[in-house]
Prior knowledge:
It is a single chain. The chain has helices spanning 13-28, 31-39, 47-56, 75-88, 94-106, 113-123, 217-256, 268-297, 302-327, 339-351, 356-366, and strands spanning 129-131, 147-148, 153-161, 168-173, 176-181, 187-192, 201-209, 212-215, 258-259, 262-263. 51% of the residues are buried. Helix content is 52%, strand content 13%. It is built from eleven helices and ten strands. The strands form three sheets. The protein has a four-stranded mixed beta sheet, covered by helices on one side. Strand 4 and strand 5 (176-181) form a beta hairpin. The protein is globular, with a radius of gyration of 21 Å. By secondary structure, it is α+β, with helices and mostly antiparallel strands.
Amino acid sequence: MTTPAPPDLLYSETEDDLRAAVRSLLTDRGGPTAALAEAERSRPHDPDLWRSLATGMGTAGLLVPERLGGQGATAREAAVVLEELGRSVAAVPYLTSAVLAVRTLLGCDTARPEVAGPLAALAGGGRVGALAVPLPTAPGGAPPATVRGGAGLSGEITSVAGAAGADVLLVPADSGLYAVDTTAPGVAVTPVTPLDLTRPLARVTLTGATATLLAEPDRARDAVADALLTGAGLLASEQLGLAEWCLAETVRYTGGRHQFGRPVGSFQAVKHRLAALWLDVVSARATARNAADALATGSPDTAVAVAVAQAHCGEVAVRAAQECVQLHGGIGMTWEHPAHLYLKRAKSDQIALGTPGRHREALARLVNLPGPVG
Length: 374
């Protein structure tokens, strides 16, 4: 029996080059400062930044094979992009369009023009898609369909991330998976106020809306399940990038902020907190990279790797953001400093695609580790 190769958690030269390009773009566009300004605008995302990232750099099609109009890369490269987007809390629909929507379409019959057409459009960045399920939906826990088929689609889905600003919605219904144009009659996308202003949520209401069937019920369920698993695994990389920025920014600030004639960061209590956080971030990097590698290689342990990554990274990101706010003192509590954006993104990500507790429960089932009885 052949022993499977151990996961490769190191970054390749290609991944390092991609990281450098994405970070350079985000830095040129203002990084967290630009995200703070974008949060004050009443639009779902930054269209110029998205155009540069998705179309100019081709990142929207990383998960799409070249024969279908994409870049033919893997989840490892997409994970690198999400790390950088987490570091800058950029207001772009990468997770919702280039990951969730794209993976859902890839789970359908791509030989059909009804599937290949939207997939190529999303891969090229010319259109933005969104999977119409509530953001807290965890892998393996898709809720019962609230949309009914017939002459047209009718129903309502709440808390859909990326729906505001999307051109096409991928809607799971009782009779299969459908593509719905957001400008079609009978389609209402109503933005709701989210905790994280850089990742908008909306309520989708369909009233006899015209739709294109993408997959029958059984294949639709498999496609959505695969998209949710991929999304949860790659979300860990966004949480990693967020935690890394919070740690680096806090170390920088406490090293330059003086009290009692010495840097705040030189006090032993602060050193201990930052050292503990560094260990958390290093562990988060290992679990996030393991999940990305498992998704890229089609490992039989992918579900385990994703559950481990989400159970750990969600809590690390929140803890890093909380430490960032607290150790910045008064300035960390203000709107002018971007620390609050990281805390809000971290808290939002913590419940997105399953809470850490939900993933621990899934992990226990996957490794046959029953919980306490009684």
